[in-house]
Structure formats: C-alpha cells, structure tokens
Design goal:
Length: 168
Amino acid sequence: MKNTIIKYGIYSILTASILFFLALTLGKTFDYSTQEIIGYLSMVASLSFVYFGIKHFRDNENNGSVTFIKALVIGVLISTCAGIGFGIIDYIYTTQINPEFASEYLEKSLETMKNTLSPEEFEIKRKELVQQMEQYGGSGFMAFIMFVTVLIIGFIISLISALFLQRK
C-alpha cells in the first residue's frame, strides 16, 4: 500500500508541476478567471491518479479486492501528496516567480468589481477584500489554502473512486 501511495503521489505531483508550468508559460495572456479554470482542471487532472492508484492497489497488490475504507485511505493519502505538491508550487510561485501576485490579483479583482457593482457596493466590497488580502495575503497562507483546496477536491475524488472500485 505504501509503495502505491508514494508512486501515485509522485505521479500526481509531477503532473501538477508540468501542468502548472505549461499554464504559466502558455497562459500568460489569459485573464484571472480563465487561469482559475485552468488551475482547477490541473488539480482534477493530477488528482486522477487517486483513481489509478486505488485501482492499481486493488488489482495488482491486493488480489483483486479492496474495501471502501482502505480505498478511501489510499485516495486521501495520494491526495495529501498532491496537496503538498500544489502548496509547494504555489509557495514558490508567490515568493520567487511572481512575488507581486497578491497585489496584482487584488488590483484585477477590484477592477472587475468596479465594473459590475454600484459605487456604494463597490466601496463596501473593496474594504472587505483589501482587509482580507492584508490578513491572509501572505505566500505561506496562500500555499496552505491551495493545499486545503486540493485536499478537499481529492477527498471527493477519493470518495467517488472508493465507491466505484471497492470489491470484496
């Protein structure tokens, strides 16, 4: 089980890294909404190894059977590897590659809000967003949020995969 988790966790991290750097180089001209969609698709693509890891364990290491709980544990542990990888990638990006990401994101978000909200609503939302960015805009916190996001999506994928792949 340990080897499966490590193997498919590494596959997940490598996939996340490759997709991140492809998006970084090829997606520079996209707006933040499009980049966000690409980011979520990258998460799902790298978390697809949860399914393949559980299936590999069931078929090749456990004589064709796996319980729901064991499959869920394998999936969550592979997701944890992916989450750690995404968190590290996010931290490197926001500290080394683009240290101005938080301020750029805030600026673009405010610009979008200004075009879609009334002046009164905009001022209220602007104050809230600026306060949130000041409180939580650090690279470490953003990396943690990325880790948690990947872990939540990974848990959902693990749950679905465990339901489909369980076999007694």
